[in-house]
Structure formats: structure tokens, C-alpha cells
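Extended Data, record Carboxymuconolactone decarboxylase family protein
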Amino acid sequence: MKPAPAETTHSSRYDRGLAKLKEIDGQAGERVIQSLADIAPDFAKYLIEFPFGDIYSRPQLDLKSREIGVVAALTALGNATPQLKVHIHGALNVGCTQEEVVEIIMQMAVYAGFPAALNGLFAAKEVFKEREAGH
């Protein structure tokens, strides 16, 4: 039996999540969602509803604190460079400085090792150059 597709109507979770995603990532987040439309539209919906509609929208942490945690986690994973770049942009968009981003990534050398921190620093360097170039 084939599972039923996710409902296509937008829920309050979806609307709340899309608003939060735009607040953090601007157009970059929307491009990720659009890129999934032809292969996994349900996954795109889940990506908006759960992380951004449910978790990011909770009042216990501000967006800067949340993005600090995400940059640290993605750096520590060591295998999520495209997502790390998106969230470095997001961290900068919600109030982190470049110096804070570098410190967050350097801190991960202690817990995730030098290779993960090096990869994170190179990702940050690319993001900083993109932003300086106005892209």
C-alpha cells in the first residue's frame, strides 16, 4: 500500500515556519525549498514545518543563539558544508559578527577535531567573500 502524500494545504506550522525561514535566510532558504519541489515536495514541507515552524519559533532562545548552535553542530558534523554555509549566512543575518562565527567554528576544534574546524573555517571564508562581493 502506497503511503498517502502529505497534505498540500498550508498549515499554521507551515506559514509560521516559512516566515521564520525568511527571517533567517531570506531568499536562500526559499531556493532550497524550490529545489526540492520536483523531487520531494513533501520533504520541503516537513523542512519548513518542523525545524522552522516548531523549533525555531519557540520563544526560549533568540535567533542569534539558535544560529550559534546550528553553526556549531554543522561544523562538528563535518559533512554538511552546503548547509553550514547557509547557516553561516543565517547567523550573520540575525546578528552574529564574522568574528563570532570564526570563534564558534574554532571552538569546535576542541570537540569535533581540527579537520572539522578547518573545513568550517574554509566554509566561513567563502561565505564572507560572497557577502563582501554582494552575492
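Summary. Helices lie at 12-25, 27-36, 41-55, 63-77, 81-93, 98-112, 114-133.
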